[in-house]
Design goal:
This protein has two domains: about 220 residues, Spore Coat Polysaccharide Biosynthesis Protein SpsA, Chain A (Alpha-Beta Complex), CATH 3.90.550.10; about 90 residues. By secondary structure, the protein is an alpha/beta fold. The N and C termini lie far apart (about 65 Å).
Length: about 325
């Protein structure tokens, strides 16, 4: 059997003719070269495929597959079917990466072979990035250890710490494109994107992946350029803040139900409640509109009750406990 490449880079393609050229160019400019690029045409109607085909004529590491439009999740799932690499990296076609990205990822694979590798990113254009996004994309410190993080430091956790890392590590979520996964790990645990989730699919995917990892790595290097503002993108379609917050509550329900089915709430109930407070609780109590505040807080409290998470409230960090109490007061 022929040995496959080290990394399969899966690039979903839909209406990105202005950006896909730069994305592919940045991948072909990698210093480390043992990879394949799997482009999945998700029914795009612009010139994106023509641009990719021109690149493919010059480099046989590029393969282009076509499918009817089904959304980002379905395109990623389709790409995984064709992946032959030991590791899989999902790269969005309107973003681009640094020349040393694959080299840094390969170094970690060679030395530690983790199930997941997570790294930092740079927002583009930077002036539109808020403080939360900057912090998530480039965590300057470890919440787990509460000490300054050295430049180019790697932090590694085994399975018993993976859920704690998911909840407390800045940048553990919500973006899949800043992670590289062991392909066998994905296949063994049947980790695919839920095609019924149109917003927040990355958070859902990562919430299913972290509890099943045996070893994860966080790299402080910023290897990826994330286009945080693009007209016509999925994020651009969710401009309404209230709509986004309500959708986040639905995502939280989806995540908690998956955790319940797998018995993880019983194992990690305190971290489960902490994640819920971080993901939707803060936004619920900080809403400026009283009606919206009450609506969102009520949804959060119903989730806490439904999954019997109130028993873990005393294990919450101090400020999270304050948010929990405020949610209770607003609901009653």
């Amino acid at each position: 059997m022929a040995k496959g490449p080290v990394i399969s880079i899966i690039v979903p393609v839909y209406q990105v003719e202005k950006y896909v050229g730069r994305c592919i160019s940045s991948l072909l400019s990698q210093k480390f070269t043992d990879f394949e690029i799997i482009c999945v045409d998700d029914g795009t109607k612009d010139r994106s495929c023509e641009i990719i085909e021109e690149f493919a004529k010059q480099d046989n590491r590029i393969r282009l597959f076509h499918k009817s439009n089904g959304g980002l999740s379905s395109a990623r799932n389709e790409g995984l079917k064709y992946a032959e690499g030991e590791y899989v990296w999902y790269v969005d076609s309107d973003d681009f990466v640094k020349p040393e990205a694959c080299s840094v990822i390969y170094r970690e694979i060679l030395e530690h072979r983790p199930d997941m590798i997570t790294f930092g990113a740079i927002p583009v254009p930077e002036q539109y990035a808020d403080k939360w996004l900057v912090r998530v994309l480039w965590p300057g410190y470890l919440v787990l250890e509460d000490h300054p993080q050295e430049k180019n430091k790697a932090d590694r956790y085994d399975c018993e710490e993976s859920v704690k890392a998911f909840v407390r590590y800045p940048g553990a979520w919500p973006f899949v494109w800043r992670c590289c996964f062991n392909r066998q790990f994905l296949l063994e645990h049947e980790l695919v994107f839920d095609e019924n989730v149109k917003f927040g699919e990355d958070t859902v995917f990562l919430s299913e992946a972290y509890p099943q990892t045996k070893r994860i790595t966080f790299l402080s290097e910023r290897l990826y350029y994330y286009r945080c503002v693009r007209k016509g993108s999925l994020m651009d379609s969710y401009k309404d803040q209230h709509e986004r917050l309500v959708e986040n509550c639905h995502i939280a329900h989806r995540v908690l139900e998956y955790w319940r089915i797998h018995g993880w709430i019983e194992l990690y109930g305190n971290y489960c409640l902490e994640w819920l407070i971080h993901f939707v609780g803060y936004d619920a109590v900080k809403s400026q509109q009283r009606r919206e505040q009450k609506e969102l807080s009520s949804i959060v409290f119903k989730l806490i009750s439904r999954y019997d998470l109130s028993q873990y409230r005393r294990k919450l960090p101090l400020y999270d406990r304050y948010i929990y109490t405020k949610i209770q007061l607003i609901c009653h």
